[in-house]
Records
---
Amino acid sequence: MDSHTPGIHPTPLRPGANPRKAATAAWVGSALEYYDFFIYGTAAALVFGRVFFPGSNPATGTLLALATFGVGYLARPLGALVLGHIGDRHGRKKVMVATVLLMGIATLGVGVLPSYESIGIAAPIILVLLRLCQGFSAGGEQAGANSMTLEHAPDDRRAFFTSFTLSGTQGGQILATAVFLPVAMLPEEALLSWGWRIPFFLSAFVVVAAFVIRRSLDETPVFEEEVASTEPQRMPVAELLGNHRSAVLRVMLAAVIASVSTIFTVYALSYAVNTVGLERTPMLWVGVLANVVALFALPFFGALSDRIGRKPVFLFGSIGCAILMFGYLWSISSGNYVLIFVFGIVMFGFVHSATGGVWPSFYGEMFPARVRLTGTALGTQIGFAIAGFAPTIAGAIAGAEVGAWLPVAIVTAVFCTINVVIVATSKETFRTPTDELGLPTRTTDSARVASV
């Protein structure tokens, strides 16, 4: 915990900085918020096709349910713009409180939503609207937590501390999947009528806990210094798109690596249960165990990137996921539970964590403090919007055939390749002081004179 990155001299923390508290708050808040987000994905894969789209055949109903999962990602860029503006103009803390409240209210609304049989077409329409609210909230969640943690952290440990935001999302996935384990064991009739609602009702406790934790946060010293030295931007997005377009584009394209997560979490689960006919419970356990491994792998890779650089760690994760997805989907098609667990845990629990442990710092380090939250939020959420529809795209190209997994693996590898190209051609930032992040390379006075 006290080691430092070679090349950066240990620097004292800024007055008011508390990286441990910020990382803890980011972890807990992200875990609680993404619990809400991922229980929707699990329910969409397992039951929503029959609850809200019963008039369709099973394959079409599942596809429509997965499409509602993807719809949430459409609202993410809008949430990124609105919440990013608030965060860069009025502070990171306000965003972190607002996102968890909106997510909790929307999730509880899904839990009390009547089925198609009760209110007809209004049911799926309201479902989509609530999913849009979830997506809007998620649009500012990670960027707010990442900016908060990065700006509290010392220069040489930014990736380690920001990795806890992503570790929190893994914790949320563990909670979401674990809650569904006993629910999935209910008889079919009970599961479809009331059982699936239990995880959504539990979100009420999630909202209260996350709100209390995030209300206790202090604003970041970096943001307060920025406000004290200059007038905050009236329209941060104007400066962002005027001076940092290339960074936004890089983050956007690199963020499609999230397709690995959505394919693993949503499509692979649906494919295993609804197409191959595997049992729900062991497939849910794959996700639980993989995320348990990720809880420890994420800070490990974050700390590693503080020592050797962001790019080599990120590239290891992206290339590894492109290869291992073939093995994971093939093992599902074969029905071999041992191989499913091995490939799933190694790919998503360990190798994918190399990307998750790095990108919270790597993306944020591309922007100065004045536009960091807006830039990170907008870039990631457009990329995540693409990744959010990866399960729908996968379901459409694969169809209902057991052996049609190969095109899905190829599509996932293409997304990973896009990420590899962007990361490989980006600037290394792990040794850049926090105050100089996102700024043009400074030229010394003597160099300027010599150039004249």
Note: The longest helix spans residues 58-90.
---
Amino acid sequence: MISNVLNSATTLISNAQQKASTAAQTIANLPVQAQEVGGSKDVGSADLFKPVLSLKEAELETSAGAKMIKVHEKTVGSLLDVIA
């Protein structure tokens, strides 16, 4: 059970990293706005909404995974204190 917590946490963090990478790539590939140098068309806020939301989700998921690991370490430490 203890290893399941670590596996879940690392999987959550890994998936969040992939989500953040995909969102960042989407944002980077958006065209430059027309009023900027080399721009060809306007980028609407709708184009940015989903990838920015994905970045925030990835941040929260990473934070949750880190908290899971921290609680796991604290629990294992408590168990070792009880055994010793």
Note: The longest helix spans residues 45-83.
---
Amino acid sequence: MCLAVPGKVLSLEERDGTLMSVVDFGGVHKDVCLQYIPDAAIGDYVVVHVGFAIQRLDEESALATLAEFEHLGVLNEEFADGFAVAAAQAGVDNPEAPRQRDPEEEP
């Protein structure tokens, strides 16, 4: 699933000529491209789709949407480790997870 998720702009910086930000999605922080909203400011809420901020959103709507996504488990699904989710859905161990050492195994 790929959603547009609201988040709060925490920082602004230019990287290689591209306006970037760290955005807070209810406690999950991700790098986001702000090129479509170049006048975004720290503290603004933006709607992010596939790593790009695509529009502004008022704080009340953003927080209500984040709360509903959290209630539905959407944020965990959207930001979870893709390998872990796929492995769980397939009913197999996550190939990316650290392997537990057998205590009888030599170091």
Note: The chain is about 25% helix and 35% strand.
---
Amino acid sequence: MHRIYANELETLHDCVETCNYCLESCLEEKDVKMMVDCIRLDRECAALCTFLAEAMTRDSAFVPELARACAVVCKACAQECEKHKHEHCQECARVCFECASMCDRLAA
């Protein structure tokens, strides 16, 4: 099963790493209150991507449904990150949009 989803697992892992980096970087910004929604969505996105990756490695029958939910959260995270000019947010937006696209394909 790992080989079947190898590219997808890599995309999910990249999204988790990028969201976690963005989250930590947001906590270091001068106006952390302005970053609260970004931080929350980074955390949600990383958690859901991790759960989807685990489900894929178990060959769960719910991969399409979980991928659909993951796409929604990845898109929301990307849209929030896009609002901020910080490099870590812009990179997170890019990676989350890529992950959302991959999840959309899995959900179809």
Note: The CA atoms of residues 42 and 54 lie 18 Å apart.
